[in-house]
Write a structure and sequence with these properties.
Layout: E1 20-24, E2 30-33, H1 35-38, E3 41-42, E4 45-50, E5 56-61, E6 81-82, H2 105-110
Antiparallel strand pairs: 1-2, 1-4, 3-6, 4-5
Length: 113
C-alpha cells in the first residue's frame, strides 16, 4: 500500500531493525525512534542491545545518514536533526548546446554555476 503515497522503492536498513533505536537531541536527552526516523537522523545515534544478565548495552551507530524516506545518502553537512530531501536545493544544470541561456537575465537569476 506504500505505492499510493509515492514510496515505490524498498528502503535500505544498515542496522538491525528488531533492536531499539535511539537518537540524542540537542539538550543531551535520548529518545527512542522508529527505524525509518533513525536512518535519517543527523546526530548521535545508538542501538540498544541486552546482555546475558539482562542489563542494557548501548552501542553507538556511525552508519550512513539517508534522506528521509529515500535511499539517497546525505553528502553535505547539515545541522543536527532529521534530513529531508526538500532541504536540498536543486541546482539548474545545462545540457550541451544550452550555454547561450546564460546571457538571458531571467535565467541568470536562478542559475548558480
Amino acid at each position: 500500500m506504500a505505492e499510493k503515497t509515492g514510496q515505490t522503492v524498498k528502503l535500505i536498513y544498515d542496522f538491525p531493525t528488531q533492536r531499539a533505536t535511539e537518537v540524542q537531541l540537542e539538550d543531551g536527552s535520548w529518545f527512542r525512534v522508529t527505524c525509518n526516523r533513525f536512518r535519517s537522523y543527523n546526530g548521535p545515534r545508538r542501538i540498544l542491545y541486552w546482555n546475558e544478565d539482562n542489563s542494557p548495552n548501548h552501542q553507538e551507530y556511525t552508519g550512513p545518514v539517508y534522506l528521509f524516506e529515500t535511499n539517497m545518502v546525505m553528502k553535505k553537512k547539515c545541522p543536527q536533526g532529521y534530513v529531508y530531501a526538500h532541504d536540498y536545493k536543486s541546482k539548474a544544470r545545462l545540457r550541451t548546446g544550452e550555454r547561450h541561456w546564460l546571457e538571458d537575465p531571467e535565467f541568470k537569476k536562478n542559475y548558480k554555476e
